[in-house]
Write a structure and sequence with these properties.
Blueprint: H1 2-17, H2 34-42, H3 47-59, H4 66-69, H5 81-91, H6 97-117, H7 125-142, H8 145-151, H9 153-159, H10 162-167, H11 169-178, H12 183-201, H13 204-216, H14 228-240, H15 249-252
Helix pairs in contact: 1-13, 6-7, 7-11, 9-12, 12-13
Length: about 260
């Protein structure tokens, strides 16, 4: 039941997140040309878009977020690199010396890798997306994201916004890495994201909270040690109240 509810929750989340009241729906956007429609249907970056990105990369400076801005408007819909860069730069003053060094080195690493790898891969969107995420992870790990996060947890948490997690895949990738940086960082991020979710959608977020707590709650008595009468009651409850049955372990991994 939890798996089903969580699936419905995330579907609704994505639907709501893709609607921008200031811009309206996709139907209000200018019609695309035949070349653009064909490129999107095939899952490839259009030739024109490829040339524009390459030209932008050549002219982007080595300092700042210019390289990442080159990827903001592309037919593969890879968004968020520029936003992450700007967020790090705007908050750099709040980090300690180690954190500042991480920001400088990680952003430089990502920009250098994007500039040199983009021209060496196919125009297929999955290949470009995989390249972006791979180099992002490599640079974060190379320059010790976790060490910076553990010493600057409060600032890191302030940088994570719930809406960005629904709209931009690079943000999700960054947060997934941060969740591996120890219990203190993980708990701080989880609490913040859940609180932001509740502010936006209220009781909808309680569905996710219920499923997570139910799955993580350890059993007080191992099944093999339960009295015979308890097993009988559990059997009747299972058949009579199937709606309360939790997902099997394979399904639980979806929430990890």
């Amino acid at each position: 039941m939890c798996a089903e509810r969580l699936g419905q929750f995330m579907t609704l989340a994505l639907v709501l997140a893709t609607f921008d009241p200031a811009r309206g729906t996709d139907a209000t956007n200018p019609p695309e040309g035949p070349q653009d429609r064909g490129s999107q249907q095939k899952g490839r970056l259009s030739l024109q878009n490829t040339a524009e990105i390459q030209h932008c990369l050549v002219n982007a400076g080595d300092v700042g977020c210019g390289v990442f801005e080159c990827f903001e408007n592309n037919s593969c819909e890879i968004r968020g690199l520029h936003g992450i860069c700007m967020t790090f730069l705007h908050n750099a003053g709040k980090f300690d010396a180690q954190g500042k060094s991480f920001i400088k080195d990680a952003l430089r690493c990502k920009a250098h890798a994007l500039r040199h790898r983009f021209g060496c891969i196919s125009r297929k969107c999955p290949a470009i997306r995989d390249m972006v995420f791979q180099l992002q992870r490599e640079c974060y790990l190379k320059h010790d994201l976790c060490a910076a996060a553990q010493e600057n947890t409060r600032v890191i948490v302030e940088m994570i916004h719930f809406k960005d997690l629904l709209l931009h895949e690079p943000y999700v990738d960054l947060v997934n890495l941060l969740l591996t940086c120890g219990e203190e960082v993980k708990e701080a991020i989880t609490h913040s994201v859940q609180a932001q979710c509740e502010q936006n959608w209220g009781s909808l977020c309680s569905i996710l909270s219920f499923c997570t707590s139910a799955i993580q709650r350890p059993p007080t008595v191992p099944p093999e040690r339960q009295p015979r009468v308890d097993r009988a009651r559990l059997s009747r409850a299972h058949h009579g109240e199937a709606g309360l049955h939790l997902s099997e372990p394979s399904s639980r991994e979806e929430f990890a």
